[in-house]
Specification:
Rossmann fold, alpha/beta, about 20% strand, 2 domains, 18 helices, nine-stranded mixed β-sheet
Length: about 600
């Protein structure tokens, strides 16, 4: 699994090349993902599919469309639909350039819709095409996603014709152009052979079915799709049978090509220019591995930042200084739950590139088993609060800045904010930015709802920021049943509960951060702020008197920052804090 940049130098795309271990393959496959919250839910499944294809002797490329994920560009750029279609063709051209013989494309949901558009006119230019639970049209996809979002948040349509979906806002131009993309409108063969995977019990769109009623199209019913893309990311269930069906169909073609040696080292590029600062300096990004577990990270710096920190492959800090010769800190972005290193609605990418313009070295990374970091041996999926992650955080700090691991600012959302809090306390870092921090969860080792193999009955001693109930309280027979009742108790009752039954109430955890000498900025919505302050009014008043503490509350802030208005306000507050507190070299936006 090799991270690469490919495509044009002035607009590179980011992807992962999955190659058979012996370096020989008999074909290549391009994986075209879906978008928005569906892409978050399906990330691990697509990664596993790529691994299985490589095991079957095929090279697989999964990638981010222009303006999405780690690729260059912005959601606000014009001609989005054309750019996404161009991204698919560039990915296919890249894999074709490897000289592997048969070439296949797998499109998931709206990725299938776009793939059909990209190759639907004229004679077949690809050998195999898998349409995996395809949206009949871009209009169908937008309608489904906007309804989902309106039900979840009660959001309304934008007055300017834009459509908001979880994590994305499609402007009027994109809505019109994407809505015009429909599988039924393609008049070519699409590919030499096509596999159509439809949900069991669903007939699908009539016009699409009529269009795909061709001799070269094989239709197959699949199950489990609802548990892949119709649920929130933490509830995703991997469709193993569907993955195996795709691998079998692509790998066992009757006219299989002979094996070809692959020059993996020469494939793709290791560095890309992703932007230009106001002073004309280019902004570079490169993938790196961090710590003994080889966690995946993406480093963003101004071009020319010296590799002086002693960590191979990790660009060093800028020479810009603030105050009395204090070097600018390295800023680390933590993944939030199943949301990988690109952050909620790609916010970490946006901030990393903006803050790098100001001279900061920024690293966004995935904890073990999440996003694009390796899975630990025998690791269970979706274990968000693993105690082993606490060691990984310190390993990342040491690997990225061995000269001074503490000269760091840790940034996280929800569970990522919890991990950042733990890292800041243990590493005594220079700063911490906690957005809607999750400090009241039940760690898996003391949660009856966690898999049995994770339960020990005792809170891990490495945890310093968990508000789990104490052992004697967990031992009460009615502990689980009392939970909902206790949650509704008023503040004075929580003052008592915090002192006799809670390991570390959130407000006292924030005090631990300040006591460690860390500059702390908490950005929260109303509900999250209430949980942090509950029963600890006096503690919070003392914190507000400390110059190292700042807490801003955004009314009605959606927890995961997938809602665009709250995300925009959070972006400006976070940027203002970083530039004013840590001394940006070029603070202009």
């Amino acid at each position: 699994m090799k991270p690469i940049w490919f495509g044009p130098e002035d607009r590179p795309l980011f992807g992962w090349l999955h190659v058979p271990q012996d370096g020989r393959a008999r074909g290549g496959v391009v994986l075209c993902p879906t978008m928005g919250i569906e892409a978050v839910s399906a990330h691990l499944t697509v990664r596993l599919l790529a691994d299985r294809l490589a095991e079957a002797g095929l090279v697989a490329l999964r990638f981010n469309y222009d303006g999405t994920g780690d690729s260059t560009g912005r959601q606000e750029d014009p001609e989005r639909t054309a750019a996404w279609l161009r991204s698919i063709r560039q990915a296919v051209d890249f894999v074709r350039g490897l000289g592997l013989g048969r070439l296949g494309v797998v499109g998931l949901r709206v990725g299938a819709t776009l793939s059909a558009e990209a190759f639907g006119s004229g004679p077949a230019t690809i050998d195999d095409l898998v349409l995996w639970d395809p949206c009949a049209s871009g209009r169908t996809f937008l309608r489904e996603q906007s309804v989902l979002w309106s039900v979840a948040l009660g959001t309304k349509s934008h007055d300017d014709g834009a459509i908001e979906t979880p994590g994305l806002v499609y402007d009027k131009e994109t809505v019109e152009q994407l809505s015009a993309v429909a599988i039924a409108d393609q008049d070519g063969l699409l590919a030499e052979r096509v596999l159509l995977l439809m949900r069991s019990g669903r007939k699908g769109d009539r016009r699409m079915n009529e269009r795909l009623d061709m001799p070269n199209v094989e239709r197959m019913a699949i199950s489990g799709q609802e548990d892949l893309v119709d649920v929130l990311p933490h509830a995703t269930v991997m469709p193993d049978a569907t993955i195996e069906a795709i691998v079998d169909w692509l790998a066992n073609h009757p006219n299989a090509e002979p094996m070809v040696e692959i020059d993996v080292e020469a494939a793709g590029r290791s560095l890309a220019i992703v932007g230009t600062a106001s002073d004309g300096v280019c902004i570079d990004e490169r993938p790196v591995t961090l710590g003994p577990k080889s966690l995946f990270g993406m480093v963003t710096t101004r071009h020319g930042a010296e590799e002086e920190m002693g960590a191979p492959g990790v660009p060093g800090a800028s020479q810009n200084t603030v105050g009395a010769g204090t070097a600018l800190p390295t800023i680390f972005f933590f993944n939030a739950g199943e949301i990988d290193h690109v952050g909620p609605a790609r916010l970490w990418v946006t901030l990393a590139r903006r803050w790098a313009e100001a001279g900061f070295r920024v690293i966004r990374f995935d904890l073990v088993g999440v996003g694009d970091s390796p899975m630990a041996k025998d690791q269970l999926p979706h274990v968000v609060y693993s105690p082993e992650a606490l060691d990984d955080i310190l390993d990342v700090l040491r690997a990225a800045s061995p000269g001074d691991p503490s000269n760091a600012v840790l940034v996280g959302l929800c569970s990522g904010a919890y991990h950042a809090v733990e890292g800041a306390i243990a590493g005594k870092t220079r700063g911490l930015i906690a957005v809607n921090p999750s400090l009241t969860f039940k760690p898996p080792e003391v949660s009856s709802k966690a898999p049995p193999e994770l339960q020990s009955g005792t809170l891990d001693t490495r945890r310093q920021a968990s508000a789990a109930t104490k052992g004697w309280a967990r031992a009460l027979p009615a502990h689980e049943k009392l939970g909902p009742f206790v949650e509704g108790l008023p503040g004075p009752a929580w003052w008592i509960i915090n002192r006799i039954a809670v390991e570390s109430p959130p407000a006292r955890t924030l005090t631990k951060v300040i006591d460690a000498g860390v500059n702390l900025f908490v950005l929260a919505g109303d509900h999250e702020a209430h949980l942090l302050k509950r029963g600890e009014g006096r503690t919070m008043r003392r914190l507000r008197q400390n110059r190292k503490f700042r807490m801003d509350v955004i009314p009605d802030l959606e927890h995961s920052l997938f809602e665009w208005r709250g995300r925009l306000e959070a972006t400006e507050l976070l940027t203002e804090h970083v530039f004013s507190c840590y001394g940006a070299a070029t603070p202009e936006a």
